[in-house]
Amino acid sequence: MGNLDETFLGLSLEEAKSRVVQLGGRAFHAGVIRREVFERGVLDYAAMTSLSKPLRERLAAELPLLSSQEIARSEAPDGTTKLLLRLADGETVETVHMPARPRGGEARRGATLCVSTQVGCPVRCPFCASGRSGLVRNLAAHEILEQYLHGRALGPLRRSVVMGIGEPLANQTQLIAAMRQVNRDLGLGARRVTVSTVGFPDRLRRLVDELGRHPPFQLAISLHSADDDQRARLVPAMAGVPVEDVLAAGDLWFDRTGREVTFEVCLLGGENDSIGHAERLAARLARRRATVNLIPYNPVPGDRFLRPEPDAVESFRATLEAGGVVATVRWSRGLDSDAACGQLRSRIHPV
After folding, report:
1. Active site residues
2. Statement: residue 239 has pLDDT above 90
3. What residue spans in the chain does CATH classification 3.20.20.70 cover?
4. 3-class DSSP state for residue 136?
5. Which residue in 206, 334, 335, 344 has its CB near the most CB atoms, within 10 A?
6. Cα 53 from Cα 97, distance rounded (Å)
7. Residues near 137 by Cβ (< 8 Å), separated by ≥ 6?
8. Which fold has domain 69-337?
9. pTM of whole model > 0.70?
């Protein structure tokens, strides 16, 4: 028997060729398997009929294709589906498949997939369920990639947002490796993938230095408040980091890549949704090329926070626009199945 933790997608192409040969195949069979997975969406050796049956059986017994398996799913009335995936070590992670909303009376092709980069989260925002237990571990690049394969099995993907469980820049090496493969092998170009981070300035600067002018994704920064003291409470991992330093790191991203940053604000009723909060945010961003994405809070059991009133959300958006800042509102989907932004990992039932 081979290494029980070893999987086909966890190997480089050269490593995969070597293992396939050891199991009685030819080196080119590794390329055949990769094409079956990435081009045809086949996730079971048994369905790869271009391989001999004995080889398929040996591969299934000694070199699993994936390290993760779907163990539960929940579907919301709006069509959003949340998948609970069990990893090789028994830990779990979630990914969310959101079909495109009809636009102009016509159905749009392809869904948006929300993926995770860690088991748990070290940031521990008090309004987000994902970090309640802190960080368990980082995901390997292939564990991030496999979420796309499980999600694509539900339907074609048009876009992806890396804003599930975890802080992506705390797992930067594996994130970049996974996103490059998503671009190359799954055909989701860099402008169709958005990575959301709380914006650690030092990590963002290193990211820009490493990626240069052509990063494999767009950037979103979860800001939540323009006020230093309040942001320290809402994003505990960023306590002591001035908001202006975060914005400066976003400026560097724009200067180096030419791509605008999206700043995300989770609006909490009676907490950070006042006109004054909007005016101070507009003052911070007025001279910057950026968009603000407002996300009304999605309730999490046991939290003290409140979902803002629609009128307050619209007033906040209008105040930003009046201050010269482009702003949009995203009422999250999947609310009824704990699949909305901030709800992941709020209810995980082992199967």
Report:
1. 94, 341
2. yes
3. 69-337
4. strand
5. 344
6. 33
7. 91, 118, 119, 120
8. TIM Barrel (3.20.20)
9. yes
